[in-house]
Design brief:
This protein is of the alpha/beta class. The protein is built from nine helices and 14 strands. The radius of gyration is 19 Å and the shape is globular.
């Protein structure tokens, strides 16, 4: 199968590329390396890398014309600067339009989109959140632009699956609390945790269900990809400390959440479990330990977040 992955050098995209290449698929990747690492991809005769932005329509059209993908996994996203509204709109919205139009033009069989659960807003009206929950993405530029992109996909003629994701973590992840905890704990910096809860999913479990969608499982529409259980960020921190095998001389500070952050995001994955015959298999402590092993080997130079910064202590 010929698969094109936008953002294919990033966290989720590169893990998916590895899986598809291992089973013999031909994979094309578009990535501008704004938040990706070059060592995420390993040279392979079935792998083609196109360096550039999906916001560039000529690059997108040329790539689709040359590689004629049967399936597109749209994982590219701008998220590293919460005040870069222009960059978010260009990549997440205009870039998606470019990908959708090119997919329609060359007859792509399916588009798989990775969407944020923050599209449901900062104050969900139900827990767990079902697929009937209204979209209300006004809390951040990231959520607004990712949700607008999803609406353009819904408007298209494509066969699509939109996976609304819980908090994915694992090797190669450079965003969110886990890499931040690792970086600060191993560099002698102070650490705090936010008083929030999240539904965490390990990247291999996420790649399992994306691979099923690439194969044609599921029907046109939106799905949740999640564990169906939320954990406090403090629990994630404790698992990180345990994986590092260190002892702290004081209890970690717990800070109240930011106005642009949501107290908990707990998704109902029942439709995905049923339609894809899929469930998560990686417990949080196991996934955290594997992720920490990756960080120890590859190191972390910087981390990213779509949230506005809080007053961080040096």
């Amino acid at each position: 199968m010929k698969v094109l992955i936008t953002g294919g050098a990033g966290f989720v995209g590169s893990n998916l590329a590895d899986r598809l290449l291992a089973r013999g698929d031909r994979v094309s990747v578009i990535d501008n390396f704004e938040t990706a690492r070059r060592d995420n991809l390993t040279a392979n005769s079935n792998l083609t890398l196109v360096e550039g932005s999906i916001a560039d329509p000529e690059l997108v059209d040329r790539t689709f014309d040359e590689h004629r993908p049967e399936v597109v996994v749209h994982a590219a996203a701008s998220y590293k600067d919460p005040d870069n509204w222009y960059g978010d709109a260009m990549t997440n919205v205009v870039g998606t339009v470019n990908v959708v139009r090119a997919s329609e033009r060359v007859g792509v069989g399916r588009l798989v989109y990775l969407q944020t659960a923050l599209g449901y807003g900062l104050h969900p009206i139900e827990q767990p959140i079902t697929l009937n929950h209204p979209l209300n993405p006004g809390g951040s530029s990231y959520a607004i632009s990712k949700t607008a992109a999803e609406e353009y996909i819904f408007l298209s003629s494509l066969d699509y699956v939109s996976f609304r994701l819980a908090n994915a973590y694992g090797p190669r992840n450079l965003s969110g609390p886990l890499p931040t905890f690792y970086y600060r704990l191993t560099n002698g910096k102070s650490v705090f945790v936010m008083d929030t809860r999240r539904d965490f999913i390990y990247v291999s479990d996420l790649v399992d269900v994306i691979s099923l969608a690439v194969e044609g499982h599921g029907s046109r529409g939106a799905y949740h990809v999640s564990s169906g259980r939320d954990f406090s960020i403090k629990e994630l921190f404790d698992a990180t400390v345990k994986a590092l095998n260190i002892r702290l001389d004081h209890e970690v500070e717990v800070r109240p959440r930011n106005p642009d952050d949501v107290a908990t995001i707990l998704l109902d994955p029942s439709k995905t479990e049923q339609d894809f015959d899929w469930q998560i298999t990686t417990p949080l402590e196991v996934g955290v330990a594997a992720t920490i092993d990756y960080y120890k080997t590859h190191g972390i130079e910087q981390t990213f977040t779509h949230l506005k910064p809080v007053g961080e202590k040096a």
